[in-house]
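pasting input
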Amino acid sequence: MLASLEGAVISAILVLTAMGLSIVFGVMRVVNVAHGEFFMLGAVLAWVVTTTLGGHPVFGFVAALIVVPVLVGCIAAGADRLILKRVNYDPDRTIVATIGMLYIIQQATLMTYGPEARPVEAPFNTRLSLPWFEFGDEGFQMIWPWGLSITSYKLFVIFAAIAVLIALWIVLTRTKIGLIMRATQQDSDTAQAFGVPVGKVYSWVFGLGAGLAALGAVLVVPIQQAHYLMGGDPLLLAFIVVIIGGLGSLPGTVIAALLIGMSDGIISVFFSPTLAKIIATFLVAMVLVFRPQGLLGRAPS
Amino acid sequence: MINKINRRTALLGLGAGTGALAAAGVLPRSMGFAQAQSSAPIKIGFQKHATGIGAAYGRWYGATTDAAVKRINDNGGINGRPVEIVTEDDGTDPSRGAEALEKFANQHDCDVAFGTLFSHVVIGSAPRAGELKIPYFVVSEGHHVASGGLNRYTLQPGITDVKSQVISMAPFVANNLGKKVTMIYPDFAFGHDHRDFFTQAIEAQGGEVVAKIAIPPTETTFTRYFPNIPRETEVIYHVMVGPAVLTFVKELGEFFGPSRPEIFGFIDSLEAVDINSSGLEFLEGTYFWEGMPRHAQADQTEYDKAYRAAVGVNERGASIDDPANVSTFAHMFGCWETLNIIKAGMESADYQGPQDRTKLIEAVEAVTDMPESEDHPQGDKLFNGKTHQTFGKQYISKVSEGRLVLEHTASIEDGLYEDEVDYTTQSF
Amino acid sequence: MTLHIAVLVVLLGLFFVLPAYHVGAFSRIMVLAIYAMGYNLLFGYTGLLSLGHAMFFAAGMYGFGLTVNLFGFSVAPAFLTGIIAAAALALIVGYLALRTAGVAFMIVTLMFAQTVYLVILYFGEYTRGDEGFVVQQAQRSFAGIDLTGETERYFAALILFAICFLAVAKLVQMPFGKRLVAIRENEERARMLGYDAAKLKLHALIISGAVSGIAGATYGLLFGYVGASFSTVQYSIFPLLWVLLGGAGTTIGPLIGVIFMFYLIDISSGYTDAYLLIAGVALVLLTLFAPLGLVGTLRKRAFPWLP
C-alpha cells in the first residue's frame, strides 16, 4: 500500500521527465544525453529562486514553478541553436555534443552552486496518517500505527503531474502546435516543403523537452534536494521509460513510468531491496526483448 | 638521468629477452630528487574529491588541509622546510585516484600522498602507492587498512576506522536505548561493515538486531522501505551517505510521526547538513555518533577552539563566512591530525627526501600514544603500528533544542579489537 | 598492415622517450584503448550502439579478480576465465538483446549492464561491492615476471594491445569484417545478399565483448584493483565517446580517442579546477569541426591512407 503510493510519486516525476525526453527524441530523433542536466538545472534554479525571493514558501515555490521551466527551456533552446543545429542533428555527433553539454552544465553548477545538496521548503507538508488493517488475535482490527503515512505535498505532486500531462496531451492532439510537431516528427522533409519552419520547431521542441524536465525537478525538489549530480538517474530512467513505452506513444510512456516506478517497490515486498531491483531491471529489459517496439509502440511495417 | 639509463637498459633487455626486462624494472627511480636542496619545500600530494559524489566532503577536507599546513608552516615547517600541498582531483573515482598517485610520485615529485576519504578510491589507489613506493596517508575511516587488504605504504593514523567506531557504540545503545535494534544502512561495503560489526557487538551486549534493512544504492526515496521495520523495534540504527541523506532522514521522520522508537544514527547521515533544516524537527531527543562534536560543547577545550578558528568554522560547525554552509566536522579533523602526524614522523625520522620514505613509515609505525593537544584536537589517540590504524575516542550526542549535546564519550578501549594483520612484517 | 606496425613501433619508442609519469599514463591508455577497440568492433563496424559495454569490461575484470582472490588461480588461467566470462555474457546478452535494434538495443544493453552492476553489489560478500578489492602484488606475476613494475606493466600492456590491435585490423579486412560493414550500411541488403545477419551480429557482439573483457582483466592484472565503479553507466559511455572522438570504423581511431580524452582531462586539470568545463567545450567544438572524429576527419580531408 505504502509502497504503491510512494511508487506513484516516483512515477509522477518520472513521467514528466520522460515526456520531455520523448518529445525531443520523437520529433528530433536525437539522443539528448544532457536531458538529466536540464532536470538538475531545474532543481538548482528552484533553490535559487526560492532563496532569493524569501518570504513564504508558497510564494517562492509558485514563482519557481513558473519561472524555472521557462528559464531552462530558453537555455536549452539556445543550446540547440548554438550547437545541435550546426551538427545537423546527426545522431552520433549529437551524442558527443550533448555529453559535452553535460560536462559544461555540471561543472558550471559545481562552481557556482557548490557540491552540497540543498533543500527547498515545501509549500505545505502535512503528514497524513492512514489506517492499517490487521488480522490479529481479536479478529480483524483497524490500527493507526506509526508508519503508514504520506504527506500532503506528495499527493499534490501526483495530481500536479496528472494535470500537466492532460494539458500536454491537449496541446499535442488538439492544437496547431501539436499538429506541426507531429508533422515534423513523421517526415521533416515533407513538413519543410509544406512551409513548416523545421529549424524553429526543433528549437522549440528542445526547449519544451528541457522545460518539462525542469518542471518535474521543481516538483521533486521539496522531497529530494538539489544536487549537482542529481541528473544521472532521471536521465537513464526517463530514457528507459520512453523506449519501453513505445516511441511517440504518450499513453505508453505513462504506463511505462508507472511500471518502472512501481515495479521494484512491489517486488521488494518479496525479496531484499537490491535483489528486487535486480529482478525489476531484468524484467523490464525483457519486456523490450520480446516487444522491441515498446509496450504501445507500433511495430515497424 | 637515471631514468634514461633505465630505459636504455630496458632496450638492451628487449633483445636479451624478458628476463632482463624484469631486471631493468628493479632499478630505483626518481633518484634525481635526492639531491634536492634541504631548504626545498616538502611536497605533500593531496588527493581531493573535488568533483564527483564526494565533492561536499572534498571541499572541507581541502579547507582543513590548508589550515593545518598554514599552522605547520607558521611554526617553522617540517625539519625547517616549508610544506607545500599539491592538489589533484580524483573525481571520487578509483581509476582517477590511481592516476593522481602516479602524478604525485612521478610528475610532481611529492614526498608523500594523503587525504583520501572514499573507500573505493583508497582501495583503487593503494596498490599504486605500494608500487610507486610512496607513503599514502588516508583519512577514510574505512576498515580496509586494518583489515590487511592493503600494503605497507598505506596508513590511516588520523581517524578511527568504522569497525572500531561501531563496536564502541554498542554498550551505550544496549544499556541506554534498547536491546532490539533495527538497522538501516546502504547496501554496499560501507553499510555491510556497519551491519556485520554492529550485529556482533550488540549481541555481545545481550542485545539483538531484529531487522536489517539494506537500501540499494542509487535510491533517492526511502519511505517504501520503512514498513519493514518490525513493531517490536526499540532502537533504530541508521547510517546513510551521499547526496540523498537529508531526504532519508526527513522521510524517516515523516514515517514515524509523533510516535517513534529511540533513534540512533551515525552523523554521516547528516554530515554537511544543518541539523535545524526544515523537516528534521523530529530529531529532537535522538542520538548521533560523532567523530568530533560538531557543536562546541560547554566544556570546550582550548584545542577545539583553536582548531575551529584555524579552519574557519563557528561554534555550530558551519563556515564563519557563511553560516548556512555546514562542514563535515565529524570527519575532517582527520586531515588536520594526519598532517601533524606526518610532520612528527618526518621529524623523528630526520626525513631528507624520497630516499627516506621507508624511514618515515617506520617512524610512524613506532608511534603509539598521541595525547589530546593542538595537534590532536579530536582527543587522545592510540596508534597501532602493526595494523597501520589509529584508535580514538568516539562521541555520542543527543539532539536537544536544535543542538548536538555530548551525552557519552566512548573510551579508546571500547573500540579496540584483535589485530587482523601485521604490516610491519611485509618488506618495503 | 605496415601502418599498424608503425603505430606499434611508435608506442614502443614512446617508452624510451617519455618521462616516467607519461609511461604510466600510456600503460593505462593502451588498456583502455583495447576496451575502445572492442567497442568499435560492434559500434563502428557493425553499427550497433550499445550502452552497456561496461558489463563486459566488468565480467573480464571480475572473472580475473575473483578467481585469483577466491580460488587462488594464477594469472594465466584467471585471465582466461575473465575472457571466457565476458564472451559467455556477450553470448547471453546477444541472444536476447539482438532481437532488438536501434534505440531498443541501446536500452536493453543499458539495463542488462545495470543488472550486472547490481549483481556485483548484491554479492558484496565476495566482491566487496562498490569498494572493490585489491589483487595483491604476489598474485600478479606471470612466468616469473612481476607485472607490478613500471617497465613490465608497460610492455605487458603493449603486447596485449598489439595482439588485439593487429587481430582487429586483420578481422575487419577479412570477409567477416566486410560483411559487418555491409550490415551497418544496409542490413536489409546484406540479408538479401545471402548473409546471415543475425548470426554475424551475434559473432560481432561476442568478439566485441571478449575484447572488452580482455581490457577489464588486463586492468585488474596491471593496476591491481577490481571494483564495481567499472560497471557503471559511466564506463559504458566512455568507449562510445572515445570511439566517436577518434573516429568510428577506423582501426586507429579508438587509440587516438583515448589518448585525446585522457590528455584533455589530464592537462586541463593541471591548469584549472574547472577542467570538465574545458573538456565539455572541447567536445562540443570537436563535433562542430571534426564531424567524423579525429581520424575520420583527417582521413577524409588530408590523409586518405590512415587506417
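fyi Residues 1-36 of chain B have pLDDT under 50 and may be disordered.
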